[in-house]
Amino acid sequence: MAMTVNQKTSAWVIGASGFSGAELCRLINRHPYLQLSRAFASSVANAKPLAELYPELATVVNIDLEVWRDQNIDQDPLPELVFLALPHEASAKLAPYFLQAGVVVVDLSGAFRLKELNKYPEFYNFKHPSPEYLQDASYSLMELIGDAELNNLISVPGCYPTVSTLALAPLIRENLLCEQQVPVITATSGVSGAGRQATLNNSFCSVSLGAYAVLSHRHQPEIAQNLGREVIFTPQLGAFKRGILATCSARLGKGVTPAQVEQAFQQYYQNQTFIRLVATPPKIAQVENTPFCDIYWAVQGSNIVISAAIDNLLKGAASQALQAANHKFGWPQPSGVML
After folding, report:
1. Which of 20-34, 125-139, 147-161, 198-212 has the lowest mean pLDDT?
2. Lowest mean pLDDT among 83-92, 101-110, 168-177, 236-245
3. Residue 149 in 3-state DSSP?
């Protein structure tokens, strides 16, 4: 049973100076069942009031960022819930300490998304320090987990896998796609997907629409794991701040009709608060700064194209993390998520 508003659950955000971490602070601050007790930056330079880093949060989130030090884990009292918005390897090292202390961990990195240990050196460039947790981590693509119970280690999907999986999963789960054909996904993300740290590649004067990490992006095995089949995934960087637009092309199985496609999407998503099945191809502008995934499809003969859009910092990160926490603690799904 969910607790009353006066019995708020204590939460920490570690990595609060990053884009996703700051969004989490904003959402938690308005959550009826959560109390943002402490927020941590990963560097001394960012140990300042959150509103100094993000002026739009002035008078919205009144919290000072502290420098994270490992000895913080030994402090009493610890929170009941911690959100890790950290680099992958940092989360992989830190999460076990909280879990051993009985804290629920919601991890926004890729540290626990993949079940195959050998994928981490190949796609994440590190040897996993906590492999014993990989099989126990609950992968929280919320619209597709149903009533499944989440473990104390909750792994939030990547932004590209979120939009791509939501676009294709109903068709694959209902066996509507041709088994011999590999779905092709082209997805364009805003530069906030690269994180807050400035580099030449994400500076305004350097960004131009183009593909990157072709056939080698770390989200490709995650998408394949989610769908249970291989995909061809090509990410692109667009000259805009936030949002992802994914175009998925596939071939329907023999005899599959448009009515069956419609039925599959309705069956999976008609009662999902944060999925909108739309009648025209979605634009990033209509999902920017929202927790929604908008999905459109078109069928021509045996060919199908699905177009889906999300805000990478919300549905692709912070708001989905909060959806998972709501599910774990038995709170209403929209709590703190609806803007």
Report:
1. 198-212
2. 236-245
3. coil
Q: How is residue 220 written in tokens? A: 């490709």
Active site residue 159: yes
Amino acid letter for position 59: T
**180 Cβ partners below 8 Å, 6+ apart?**
none
Burial 39-74 (b: 16+ CB within 10 A, else e): bbbbeeebeeebbebbeebeeebebebbebeeeeee
Domains, in order of start, for the chain: 9-156+317-329 (3.40.50.720), 159-310 (3.30.360.10)
CB 165 within 8 A of CB 268: no
Q: pLDDT grade, residue 43 (50/70/90)? A: confident
Residues forming beta bridges with residue 305, ordered by sequence position? 249, 298
- In angstroms, the CA 12 to CA 39 distance is 6
Given the residues 159, 178, 205, 293, the one annotated as active site? 159
E-state strands within the chain: 9-14, 34-41, 65-67, 81-84, 104-107, 138-139, 153-155, 184-189, 210-211, 232-237, 244-251, 275-277, 293-300, 303-310
Whether 303 contacts 140, CB under 8 Å: no
2 pLDDT exceeds 50? no
